[in-house]
Amino acid sequence: MGINAKDVARLAGVSQSTVSRVFFGGASVTEKTRKKVLAAAEELGYTPNEFARSLITNKTNIIGLVMKGVKNPFYPQVLKEFALEFKKLGYGILFVHTNNYEIEKEDISMLLKYNVAGVIITDAALSLYVTEDFKKNQIPLVLFNRKTEKQDFYSVGTNNMAAGRKIAEYLIAKGCTDMVYISGERNTSTSIEREKGFFDVLEKHQLPYKRYDSDFSYQGGYETTKKVISEGNIPSAFFAANDIMAFGVLDALREHSIAVPEETKVVGFDNIDMANWPTYNLTTWEQPISDMVQETVKYMMSEIEEYTGRTGKVKIPGQLIERKTT
Amino acid sequence: MGINAKDVARLAGVSQSTVSRVFFGGASVTEKTRKKVLAAAEELGYTPNEFARSLITNKTNIIGLVMKGVKNPFYPQVLKEFALEFKKLGYGILFVHTNNYEIEKEDISMLLKYNVAGVIITDAALSLYVTEDFKKNQIPLVLFNRKTEKQDFYSVGTNNMAAGRKIAEYLIAKGCTDMVYISGERNTSTSIEREKGFFDVLEKHQLPYKRYDSDFSYQGGYETTKKVISEGNIPSAFFAANDIMAFGVLDALREHSIAVPEETKVVGFDNIDMANWPTYNLTTWEQPISDMVQETVKYMMSEIEEYTGRTGKVKIPGQLIERKTT
């Protein structure tokens, strides 16, 4: 049942609309009345209801955040940064976990039902009807660390293709001649772009390379590497599309007593905290999470202020972090 | 500004209150009118606004979840399970990240402002005023994986003391004679209870033991173990208050070429996914996350249905998972 404006009005001896005016603005209220209302609200523990406010302003201070892969520590870190940044601006995060590769209809209706001020989608895919629903309702949408060719969105990520190129050049400079790329899920933009940049450079240098399809999971990196080893040709370097797959690569190599970086080298992607743990000490590409979050928040706030529906692809450069696996 | 009930009313050629009755109940509406309104809503992409509904029912379908330690993979997993369970029931999760040990006042006001149906607090501490605010507003509150002696709450966790006892008995049976406990933050109930159960048994067996204070982080486990090693007395077993500290213990031991489980043994707590990674293969205590989440959801839904403010401490047994570090 809770305390509501009616209770405050009764205790303060004023009308309910006066209470509403004190908290949500509108026609003016005398200072004496304002104080009476605030004292009554304080005594009862009444907090002006955001829902009531949203009926007047037709806006809420909630940002919907859709996420799939919480097993990859990269995403909880992203969640945390968004929560802290939006908190500073008085916004809360409605967290939606989607189990499937594609966002489910029920997830979208929840976001619409709560009249979210904006939506951020991290690692899940979108279908067309989703976009339509958000556009109709003028809800700004950002694809974070994902983009899509098919539809127009605002997306924020790192420059994956340039990173793939830099990693190839770095490994070539280290003397690597034949390389393996372990992909994430094949239909994700991040995995495709990292691969393209990587292979483009190897092709230009006429160096042999091979792709093994995996799934962005530790187990995927581990099993794939066992397969590579069983095929008998250890490449001079592995590039895994994210760090946790690279950890799987390193553990599989360790199990087969293949020395890193002497016999083969390993590079990951993300630079999550664990990449720095002594057991892995992984050379990797740092995704500039803070800058990516800042950029997303900036766009979101400007679209909340005034909706334009503008699209764009923002690519923030990262950097190679050299550690002991290369 | 988005589609609202007014737009739907205009297109359907009915009054706004008729639209409201179709979506939120109240006085009856003819089937013909209902269909007209639904068709107009469909055409415009209108979703009945949860805020409007909450003004009538004075309830929202939002659960506030307060979390601190997303660096420990245990908590993102907890978040995911809550999100999935509550989604089944039509509830969303308002995610609040608190940076400090104690929940901040602004976090509480956000939860109250959004009129959350209930609050779950995982690894942050509570002060008295927080409880008062929730009680006044009849908002059910659950401490998940935490409890407190000072105030009365409903708490759900595993039986930490019994787990600590079982771990001590297990290590004694394995021939361990002197042991080290690496604590989490000293003022957390989980760390205190695990320690108490563990030391109680060692005392009964008149075996020497020592506590090193740490902080539930990988770095904490790693640095503490380096300190233990530098002091020159390697104990026959380490019990770390969570898995990620145990990983730090194992990496520090590996760096000093101290063989596990031959020269010393290591036990963790939580059984996060990584405990099963070949590089660690950690013996640990499994926290029954799913059962703990189910229990929390059950209490929450019954208190949302009818608020009683009942308190209690639910302890769900876990189990020892034996792997290669013992």
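qc> The CA atoms of residues 276 and 282 of chain B lie 7 Å apart.
qc> done
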